[in-house]
Write a structure and sequence with these properties.
83% of the residues lie in helices and 0% in strands. The protein is mainly alpha-helical. Helix 2 (18-50) packs parallel to helix 4. The protein is elongated and about 60 Å long. The relative contact order is 0.16.
């Protein structure tokens, strides 16, 4: 999946009514909350296996991944804030359609969607890196322990 777009057609943002955009944005917020929980799990996973590390190269890899995850955390928090504000603005538009300039607001909606798509790509890449390094550490460090025990 190359992007996060949940639109049934390319011009959906400019043709959908406010209620439809509100539902779509609620879906985004729900997904972001899930990603935030998954990020907590990834941090926990790293913390758990960090204790096993004895090789400097593994420590450096984990440190790099942790820094990347912290950036993804910031990105997620920022998007959650933007999405919440966007939902609030959509609720105002539902109540009073003349609250904002329609075209400008729809353009902002599309920008938010593009930011979410980029976030999902970044998140998936980092998640894969966490699992890859965790697997590498478990296998590599376990071998070191077995060799030390056999001496």
């Amino acid at each position: 999946m190359n992007d996060f777009r949940n639109r049934p057609k390319d011009n959906y943002i400019h043709e959908a009514d406010w209620e439809q955009l509100y539902v779509l944005t609620e879906h985004w917020k729900s997904d972001l909350l899930f990603f935030r929980d998954d990020l907590r799990f990834l941090h926990h996973l790293i913390d758990k296996y960090f204790l096993w590390i004895s090789k400097k190269e593994n420590i450096d890899k984990v440190r790099d991944i942790e820094v990347n995850l912290l950036e993804i955390d910031k990105q997620c928090d920022s998007l959650l804030e933007k999405t919440s504000k966007h939902l609030h603005h959509l609720a105002e538009l539902i109540d009073d359609p003349f609250t904002y300039v329609s075209d400008k607001f729809r353009d902002e909606h599309e920008i938010l969607e593009d930011e979410l798509a980029q976030f999902v790509k970044d998140f998936r890449k980092n998640r894969k890196e966490v699992f890859t390094i965790t697997e590498h550490i478990i296998e590599g460090e376990a071998l070191v322990r077995q060799l030390n025990l056999s001496k």
